[in-house]
Every structure is written in structure tokens, then in C-alpha cells.
Structure prediction request, 498 residues.
Amino acid sequence: MDKSHYGFDVFALVLGMLLPLAFAPLNIYPLSIIIPSLLFWIIYDSPKKLAFRRGYLFGFGLFAVGASWIYIAISDFGFTSSPVAFLLTLTFVAFLGLFPALQSLLGVVLARGLSFGAAAFVFALCWLLFEWIRGWFMTGFPWLNLGYSHINTPLIGFAPVLGVYGLSLISLFISASLCSLWPVKKIVTPLAAGVVLGLFVTGWSLTSFQWTEKTGEPIKVAIVQASLPQITKWDPEQIRHRMDVYAQMSEPLWGKYEIIMWPENAMTILWQDAPLLYKDKLQDRAVETNTALVIGVPYGDVDTKYYSSIIVLGTKPAVYHKRHLVPFGEYVPLPEFAKKLAGFFQLPMSGFSRGDKVQDGLEVAGQKMAPSICYEDAFGEELIDFLPEATVLINGSNNAWYGKSWAAHQHLQIARMRAIETQRQSIRSTTTGISALIDEYGQLMQSTNLHEQTILTGTVQPRQGATPYVRWGNWPVLIFMLIVLLALLVRVVQLRAR
Prediction:
């Protein structure tokens, strides 16, 4: 079939626009297997320029739909005009489109001379390579990684073993196996079908495997979701009001729960600048009732360094400083002179400093917990720094930036994956939702609605032990991928030398 027609360019764009439907909140997960197969078919045996273009169109469609919520944060809360917000969002999406473009280009180079079925496995490895690069390049944007779409499928059993990147690889190999089913061949077709069936059966069997075990007693938890407007979050005139709302909502909880948690930057004033009487009252109540109060708050000195932090009040005070900051949202990754040129993009409190890479987990209610703030929980390889010592995951987030978009649902899906990878229960406190208590299999024990002022209560069970992913991280998957890609590269060099 002649695939040089521009209609295939449109097809690539549409495929990219459809792939986000495989993720939360719609969770049409078969798309995450079918769509890569179709993309492999479109770019197979294409000239390099054509493969790059179609990969780019696919990527542009993927992030234009799947990450469109970036526009809301810039437009509504970045104090920019709609045209400027649109232009910045377009630039962001255009940049992200380069990753699928490069994966497609590399795929056709490395798959030179291979059959479609064999080439599909090469394309799968190239996809994984650039998904991984996207997860760390320029601080990383590991959103919409293919593995997340399988959180409700039998394949999720692979997550505690190989992590989300391993799950992406399994999914992509299934897509490649589907490519091997056509044209039908006596040997290859049954083999490919057997691989697909075997992966699903293996994943399903792994879902019931317990890599960790209970330790200690369940902990009673209360999460305060005040759901206050984001637009007034950093208004100096609203600081005291917001502090009082959290304090008043927490008042009936003292002594009834072992942990009371407020979300990321629940207090919108530096902890050091907050009224001493207010802080002392919270600390005294925490000690008197033997309750750990966990608060998200800026911490430090505005004239030197300040951090996005989680502090613990009570009998054992503690603090954690966010290590992985959001570029342009929490800090501006530009030289000082360039920051002034970018002054039109004015997100408040965008001068945070990074916390130390090596920090202790938080001791809360007698348990060591693995802390993360907002999108830090998208980086599983960083969260396992606190394990296996940590027995519970704890995260404070603010998804109010993104309104009623898919962002909060996608973020919750990511948080569920971290619980599965580590086989730990998770406490997730957010400003406007979705707050949740998540079990070690990624299932929601309790959760809130978006933009609901409420208190979420329940228990979490500490767990000890280590999954294979906690022990080895992404290394097994990355080493396998890089060895195979290197071998393919050597093959291409040898072909050109002939």
C-alpha cells in the first residue's frame, strides 16, 4: 500500500489525539495497545523525513489533548492574556511532540531491512527510549507514559517487578506482537498470539503476589480538603482566612485520628513568618492529643532560600523539602537576565529552591513515611530513595491549577501506580481534590470529589519489605533496552559498511 499520501499524516495526528483516552479519567485501555500498532504500521519502511513528520504529528496530537490543562494554569493563574497563554501552551506541546518524532526517526533507521513484525519490536524499544528520556530531560515530564493506562488491566502485575517503564515495554511488545499477526504465517502467528496471551496470564498471576507484609497497627488518618479558590491562594489579604479555615476544619479531629494532613502549601505564608501564636497553638494541640499534624507550607527565608515543604507537628517534629521542582511553576530555569525578559509569565511563588537530594523519610505516627510533594510522585525512581525503610507513602498536592480538567484524574492514576510499584499504602492530600487513601494494590480505599470541601477519613496499614522494583528501580528495563538498541545500531553500521 502506498502510504505517502497526506491522509496518513492526518491519521497519525488523530491517533495521537485518541491515545489520551486510554488514560484516566476515561480509561479506554485497549487504545494503548491498538494505537501503537497502527503508528508502527504508518511509519514502517518510510523515508526518514516522513517518519519524523508523522511521529511529530502523533506526538503533537497526544500532548495537545492529553496535556491541554497546561493552558488553564497559565491563563487563569499565570496572569497572562489568553493569546499569550495559548502561545506558551502551543510551544510546550510543540516541544513535547519532538520525542515521538525522534522515536519514529530512530525506529526506521534501526529497523532497516527488517520485516514488519520484527520492525515493530524495534519501534517498541525506540518508543520506550524516548518515553524514558522525556521523563528526565529538562527536569522531565513523565506524564502519559503508556504503562499508566494499564492500571486496571491484568498487566498491572508487572508494575511491582519492572515499574511503569517495564509496564510500558510489556504493553509495547504486545502491540508489536499484534503487528506480527499480519500477514498470517504458520509459525509466526501462533507464536505472537502465544506471547500476547502469556504476558496477560503472567501479569494476572503476579497481581496476587505479596512482595510486602503488614507491620504494626493500622493508622487512623484524616485529610483536610478545604477546596479554597486557587485565584486567591497567594493574596496577602486571604492568608489569615485560609489558615483559619484549615484550623477550624481540623478542630473536631484532634485526638480522634493519629494523623491530620493538610495539602501542599495549605498555608500560603512562610512558616517562619506565620504568627507565633497560631503555630504554638497547633503544636500544643498536636502534643496534647498525641496527633501528628502534617502541613504543606513554604519554609525558609524569602531573601535567601525558601522551599516547598511538608512539616510535621507533634511529639516528633520533622520537615521535608521538595527535591524535584516544576520548571517555570516553582522556579525559573533561566539566567537572571533572561528571567527579566520572561517577566510576563508571573506565577506566584516561583522562586523555590530545591531540597537536598538526600533526605530522611518523615517519621509520622511512629512510622517512617516516604514523602513527595505534588508531581514528585511522577518520578518513581526518586520515591524509592526512601524505601524499603518507609512503610507508608505520603503526598501533598495542589491540582487546583488545572480547574476541572483531566489533570487531577491523571495525577491520581500516577499516585496509584506508585503504591503498586512499592506495594505500600498511600496518603494523598490535595487542595481541591482528588484526595485519597490508596491500598498497596493501587485501589482507592476512600477518595474525594473534585472541588469539594470535605474531610476524608480512614486508615492505612503500614507495610514492610521490598518489591523487585524497590530493589532495582528502572535498571533492569533500561539495561535490556539499551543493550538491544546498541546491537541494532551495530547491525545498521555493518549494513552500511557492506
Notes: The chain has two domains: 7-210+474-497, 213-466. The chain has a mean pLDDT of 92. Residues 7-210+474-497 form one domain. The CA atoms of residues 29 and 153 lie 8 Å apart.
